[in-house]
Amino acid sequence: MPEATAAAPRRGISLDVYAVTLALILTLLVRLNLIPPIQW
Amino acid sequence: MATTIPTTRPLSLTGPIGLGRRVAELIPGLLLLAAVGYAGKFIERSIATYTKAHHITFPNIEYVLWAIVIGLVIANTVGVPRIFQAGVATYEFWLKAGIVLLGARFLLGDVLHLGGISLFLVAIALTLSLTFMHLIGRAFKLKPKLTSLLAIGSAICGVSAIIAAKPAIDANDEDASYAIAAILALGAISLFTFPLIGHSLHLSDKAYGLWAGLAVDNTAEATAAGALYSDAAGKVAVLAKTTRNALIGFVVLAYAIYWASRGEAQAVGNKAAFLWKKFPKFVLGFLLISLLATLAVFTKPQLTSLANLSRWAFLLTFAGVGLRTSLRDLGKQGWRPFAVGAIGEVFIALVTLGLVYGADRFLHL
Asked: I need a surface site. Which of B87, B197, B300, B316 has the fewest CB within 10 A?
């Protein structure tokens, strides 16, 4: 019988991965000048 | 009726229809986050314009504080209606995206220098605070697993650490919600006290940022506490807090092994897989963007755009911090977990302040 582990059951892709993906997409858009300069 | 906003909500996307429906559910809350955050920015700008036009000397109150206060007022008076809750719960997503984008404002050398100092200080503070939390938990007769959760939450990184540790040490829901409520309450208090203490001690931006990043529990509150002091302090606070977050897996693993050895939690199988699972992946995104910035991949205007995108993401986060803090819920948890958390927090704040003073003097921040 497989050993029980303390890892939580898989619940899909983590929030971190979505956040990193969005940030990288935005970075790419900025790098390729596909979005206007962002003002603050 | 308004209820407490969940601190995290896993994204489960089941096909295009599920995705479309999920995104539609988020829109009202996202608009509320944007409205509250922008209101904070508007108030800061309006006060600055008015006082300048009328030659009035008035301290600049950052948009961060306004956004948090507006959120707190809404959450604790009319409450956050259910329709807004899913969108408001995304504040943590914006925090992580904002941290990754913030990487553009750091050269990798600075990350390694400040991150290295942070790591050294975190290791000392971590050892002292975990030991201290267990001693006072025992003195206040708290349940051992609740004490473990409070210790992990206050020593490492607040709510995320508690959520990561809960299944690993087989803690029950009640203990986890007590620990989360105590950590959130203390985080809210630190938002108002840390900048005051920092100013009264005349801490430099770097020293204050490092202190906030090492001592304030939750990443959102640490970011806000840093930004309340100054933009530069906010930057350093995020870096120090990110270093602290990176250690989450090791601490949770140590606790999982400890409780498993006592037969009160399941054994840990593959330790490397366990560490990777608990490792906050946004840290890697932050390092990647910082590396690209160091390699001069971006022009100066592009770097400015990335930094501003990060600020907009943080604006949504700060609005969420206020909106998810329910003062009513904090009163329900009983005084003992709060007292243990509070005493622990004061201890950690003092220890880290001492460490930062030492680092400022001997390691030249």
From this structure: B300
